[in-house]
């Protein structure tokens, strides 16, 4: 019983502090600052400069400003339902963190990748619902575009992350668990037969993640020159802060999944000291964010048909190929 | 267990975030100025009414009454509702005949 209570307290502590709410907020601020700074430097701009050291506190200032702005609700729009949906999406994303090795008391079970996949889809559905909860035509149009893309990129992303999970489970006995697969995945790179599969699924995961984050070239649902801000057009104040926070947390969680499933997590310091393991995970995380930012800075926006064509014609078949080969190899 | 633990975690964070939102709207309401522009709807630079501007979900249920049945009722009312007592008796008599006809067709009352 004592064990049960201590485990429950541990779970609550993890949810609220590390790697949950407080830590995620800090990482979200850092990630947003880093992305904005890197994106600006790639475009020969300065990026955030004034608030904090080299502008590091600018995202925090933005959050505080939005949080204390008036929450304007348009006529015939819903007032509290969008906020509740956004809160649910934040909860879903932070729950995934417990299933990753960064969590001291990790939750895992055989086949828990299904739970992770379910939780990963929450934010997308929430963002799509937001557009339909306001009577704005921009919102409805943005949400319908988002749902059109969702069918393609969610499939591609889930298939991509399934490949290392299936390989780790079939070869190393990871029991289709996100946590165990994350721990064993670095061993997959030591087998030369599996390296091409890992490379293919890493590429498809990165591109579908770029689409999941609605970044260029896949920012079609919130294309500001055409439909203002798509599903987010009519939202302001704390709801807009939540929307931006979800974007940052989504980048954080999905990038961590890529770091642990594809880039080997703490490898090459599997037996090394804790500080070295934290440092290597941080470096790999920054590399993933930098690559995503680089893609964003490099390309222009696709049209809807171009994005759908690219996802269904190249990304989904490639990821499916890697998954099928990984099940028979 | 993994489902329960993630659900508990999700529940706690959801409560926390929603609580923060409620706190935010409570605080901002205390120092917000009442805006006169906000309730007005503009399209192409002109003020339009709420009914003209929106196609909300509740229209799905009310449109058929407002747009189809109400004009039909209005036009019928203009022709039928003359204010003459004889006309009223005529319509009542007609309704009675229709009712009797239906009852006879269906086989009468009480089998």
Short descriptors:
heterodimer, A: mainly alpha, 12 helices, 68% helix, B: 111 residues, mainly alpha, two-stranded antiparallel ribbon, 4 helices, 2 strands
Number of domains of chain A: 1
Q: Give the amount of beta strand of chain B, in percent.
A: 5-15%
Structural class of chain A: mainly alpha
* Gyration radius of chain A, in Å: 20 Å
User: Helix count of chain A?
Assistant: 12
Average pLDDT of chain B, rounded to a whole number, is: 80
Order of helices and strands of chain A: HHHHHHHHHHHH
Strand order, main sheet of chain B: write it out. 1-2
Task: Outline the biggest β-sheet of chain B.
Answer: 2 strands, antiparallel
Percent of residues of chain A in helical segments? 55-70%
Q: What's the β-strand tally of chain A?
A: 0
Report on this structure:
The complex is a heterodimer of chains A (329) and B (111). Chain A has 329 residues and is mainly alpha-helical. Chain A has one domain (75-328). Chain A has twelve helices and no strands. In chain A, helix 10 crosses helix 11 (274-298). Chain A starts with a helix and ends with a helix. The mean pLDDT of chain A is 88. Chain B has a two-stranded antiparallel sheet. Chain B has four helices and two strands. In chain B, strand 1 and strand 2 form a beta hairpin. Among the domains of chain B are: 1-29; 81-111. The longest helix of chain B is centred in the first third of the chain and has 30 residues, at 2-31. With 111 residues, chain B is mostly helical. Chain B has helices at 2-31, 50-53, 59-80, 85-105; strands at 41-43, 46-48.
Sequence-ordered SSE layout with sheet pairings:
The complex is a heterodimer of chains A (329) and B (111).
Chain A: H1 2-16, H2 21-42, H3 58-67, H4 81-97, H5 113-132, H6 137-172, H7 178-184, H8 195-212, H9 224-227, H10 237-261, H11 274-298, H12 304-328
Helix pairs in contact in A: 2-10, 2-11, 3-10, 4-5, 4-10, 5-6, 6-7, 6-8, 6-12, 8-10, 8-11, 8-12, 10-11
Chain B: H1 2-31, E1 41-43, E2 46-48, H2 50-53, H3 59-80, H4 85-105
Antiparallel strand pairs in B: 1-2
């Amino acid at each position: 019983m004592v064990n049960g209570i201590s485990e429950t307290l541990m779970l609550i502590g993890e949810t609220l502090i590390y790697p949950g709410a407080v830590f995620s907020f800090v990482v979200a601020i850092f990630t947003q600052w880093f992305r904005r700074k890197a994106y600006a430097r790639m475009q020969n701009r300065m990026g955030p400069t004034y608030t904090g050291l080299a502008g590091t506190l600018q995202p925090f200032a933005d959050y505080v400003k939005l949080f204390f702005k008036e929450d304007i609700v348009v006529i015939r729009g819903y007032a509290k339902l969008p906020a509740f949906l956004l809160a649910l999406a934040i909860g879903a994303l932070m729950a995934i963190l417990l299933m990753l090795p960064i969590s001291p008391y990790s939750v895992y079970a055989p086949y828990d990748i299904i739970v992770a996949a379910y939780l990963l889809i929450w934010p997308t559905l929430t963002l799509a619902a937001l557009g339909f909860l306001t009577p704005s035509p921009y919102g409805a149009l943005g949400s319908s575009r988002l749902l059109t893309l969702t069918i393609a990129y969610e499939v591609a992303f889930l298939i991509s992350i399934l490949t290392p999970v299936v390989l780790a489970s079939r070869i190393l006995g990871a029991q289709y668990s996100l946590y165990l697969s994350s721990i064993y995945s670095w061993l997959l790179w030591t087998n030369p037969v599996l390296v091409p599969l890992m490379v293919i699924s890493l590429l498809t995961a990165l591109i579908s993640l770029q689409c999941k984050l609605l970044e260029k070239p896949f920012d079609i649902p919130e294309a500001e020159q055409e439909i203002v801000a798509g599903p987010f057009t009519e939202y302001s104040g704390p709801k807009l802060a939540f929307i931006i926070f979800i974007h940052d947390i989504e980048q954080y969680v999905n990038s961590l999944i890529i770091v642990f499933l594809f880039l080997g997590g703490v490898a090459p310091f599997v037996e090394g000291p804790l500080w070295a393991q934290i440092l290597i995970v941080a470096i790999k995380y920054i590399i993933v964010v930098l690559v995503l930012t680089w893609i964003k800075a490099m390309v222009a926006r696709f049209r809807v048909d171009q994005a759908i064509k690219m996802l269904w014609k190249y990304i989904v078949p490639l990821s499916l190929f890697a998954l099928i080969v990984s099940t028979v190899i | 267990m993994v489902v329960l633990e993630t659900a508990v975690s999700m529940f706690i964070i959801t409560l926390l975030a929603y609580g923060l939102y409620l706190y935010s709207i409570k605080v901002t309401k205390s120092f917000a100025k009442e805006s006169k522009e906000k309730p007005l709807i503009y399209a192409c630079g002109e003020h339009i009414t709420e009914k003209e501007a929106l196609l909300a979900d509740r229209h799905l249920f009310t449109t058929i009454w407002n747009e189809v049945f109400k004009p039909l009722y209005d036009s019928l009312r203009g022709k039928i509702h003359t204010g003459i007592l004889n006309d009223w008796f005529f319509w009542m008599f007609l309704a009675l005949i229709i009712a009797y006809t239906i009852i006879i067709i269906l086989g009468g009352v009480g089998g």
